[in-house]
Amino acid sequence: MDGAKQPVFDEMHEADGSVRPAYAEYCEWLDQQDGSWLRRKSFEAESLFRRSGITFNVYGEGDAEERLIPFDMIPRIISGGEWRKVTRGIEQRVRAINAFIHDLYHRQEIIRSGRLPERLFRNNMAWLPQMVGFTPPGGVYTHVVGVDLVRTGPDEFLVLEDNARTPSGVSYMLENRETMMAMFPELFTKIPIQPVSNYPRRLAKSLAACAPECAGENPTVAVLTPGIYNSAYFEHAFLADQMGAELVEGSDLRVVDGRVQMRTTKGYRPIDVLYRRVDDDFLDPLTFNPDSMLGVPGIFDVYRAGKVTIANAPGTGVADDKAIYSFMPDIVQFYTGEAPLLPNVETWRCADPDSLKYVLENLEELVVKEVHGSGGYGMLIGPTASKKEIAAFREKLRARPANYIAQPTLSLSTCPTLTRAGLAPRHVDLRPYVLVSPEGVDISPGGLTRVALKKGSLVVNSSQGGGTKDSWVLQD
């Protein structure tokens, strides 16, 4: 399973060096450009991002200075036919996840059937007993989902993980496109690229469709942010502005007459849909963490009474658990009656003694992740780890095996990236953004491509030094 032995799929070039059809028109244009001009354009893009204030914080590093996520202006291009296959698999998976979460908080049929061990959610901090027996307005738990995909071949897209709690990064998808259109407008008249700029409008429409019955014809939507010191505050403010929604903090809200209401210059005004970017534990100090200063006292009782929609629903994080991820093929089959259209990456659950034995014996070749981990933290990439790091991780595995899963080191596909030495292949993944409402499933064409900027690196997370690219889906 050693990724180093697998061929790497180059998304721009065929094995014989010829250009793949999806990149044909772009490469024709690129071949006519001067290398020094491209580098000047790259600096121009960086200044555009700085002026826009697109930064993020890395927690736990000194004074947590704000950083700019590196942007690579060579786009990642996917044909329309390839994208249609991917979206069918994403829609199937997202529908199954929503049905799965509903089942966990109601009859738990998948547990009764023996397809999923009860311990996986009984010991899961993301599973909230306060949600048992309650169905959110419209029956939607996962209003916004990010499905992380990796590509290993021409028709080989795999799901790396699901983000059903509060997927981030969509502002970078939108700003990447706006930057590319500003710098290379001729490309967007020459090449038929599906638009993404209407995402905020589609998000606002999708959230409004999930409003409770008391909302009336024009629901009020607000974005709940932890505040300016949160690493993703730029995105919260950006989305609120682009949607025409209110941007609020917990201190701006209170429960008045059985509704969640927002303080305005004319008194308090009801909010119908709250797109929250605050973790479950901090939503309501009366129900969850009593020390929270970020949430709204009493909001959960209003929610249970059906007087406000919280997106995503509290308790959806149970679907992000990487141990549950390993059961997703069974989950998709159970709730849709169909085989998964998008396969998982092969996964070993370290809670299983045989799997643990295999993982311990092959740590040098595997990627090991915490079941609740995110952002590239708390993981081991065996082929690039030192003997000391592997030995330390081996002890962690033996001490808490149920806290980890392991996967093969995949040969992620590469896309050309502009480096100081010119174009060079770098590994990429893809996070499409999915909107779910009673009206259906809406998938952004492309999503956010993250790129590992270091030669040979497989780590694409911005917190670990990765960058982003504009993702083009063609209209063919």
UniProtKB/TrEMBL annotation:
Pfam (any one): CP_ATPgrasp_2
Coiled-coil zones: none
Signal peptide: none
PANTHER family with a match to the protein in the record: BLR5612 PROTEIN, SLL1039 PROTEIN
Domain Circularly permuted ATP-grasp type: 75-452
Origin: domain of life: Bacteria
Protein name as catalogued: Circularly permuted type 2 ATP-grasp protein
Gene3D superfamilies attached to this UniProt entry: 3.30.1490.270, 3.40.50.11290
